[in-house]
Design brief:
The protein is mainly alpha-helical. The protein has one domain. The protein is globular. The N and C termini lie far apart (70 Å).
Length: 190
């Protein structure tokens, strides 16, 4: 007989929290945990005919919920981004779309839990840069895809969130300058 799960239990959130307590470091542990979960979800979704993107979004949400402290946000989110990309095994344009969807989900979930948007955008951009070479992408383009998708999600939440994302994306991250499609409203006005 199976023992009932606690109602507040969530496999990826709990797995992420456990991975972050592991000895391998926040980035390594989080990327490996997410990659395993995404690989399994992709396989199951394809078998059952479900939408892969929805399964991945659920994994990303659970992983964000598993981050316990603000000090872990940047490295953990970088790990989540890299883990999703490793788990899907996509490259080229498909990987760009995955970066964009992952970025939007991370920002929405970070906002929902009251997390640090600046750390979230830095983690997303670092994850995109880290993965770019393996995916057959230009690091600047991958970083910009992540940042623009994050900005889109932040703008949907309000101008304060969008301003925080814009501000964080203006700094060079790991030596890469992000190109945002839209400028800040204040910079555009005469």
């Amino acid at each position: 007989m199976r023992s009932p799960r606690r109602p507040e239990s969530h496999p990826i959130r709990d797995g992420m929290a456990q991975a972050l307590r592991g000895a391998g470091g926040v980035f390594t542990e989080s990327s490996e945990a997410v990659a395993r979960a995404v690989t399994a979800a992709v396989h199951e979704a394809r078998k059952s005919g479900e939408a892969v993107s929805e399964r991945i979004a659920d994994i990303v949400k659970g992983a964000i919920q598993g981050i316990d402290s603000a000090e872990e946000d940047d490295a953990a989110i970088k790990g989540i981004c890299v883990g999703v990309l490793r788990g899907t095994r996509e490259s080229g344009a498909a990987a760009c779309r995955t970066i964009q969807r992952t970025s939007g989900t991370v920002i929405r979930e970070t906002l929902r839990r009251g997390g640090d948007l600046a750390q979230a955008i830095r983690g997303l951009v670092r994850g995109a840069i880290h993965s770019a070479k393996d995916l057959g992408l230009d690091a600047g383009e991958a970083a910009s895809d992540a940042a623009n998708a994050a900005l889109d999600a932040a703008e949907a939440a309000g101008s304060d969130a969008a301003d925080k994302v814009r501000s964080a994306a203006q700094e060079a991250i790991d030596g890469v300058r992000v190109m945002l499609r839209r400028q800040d409203r204040q910079q555009v006005q005469p």
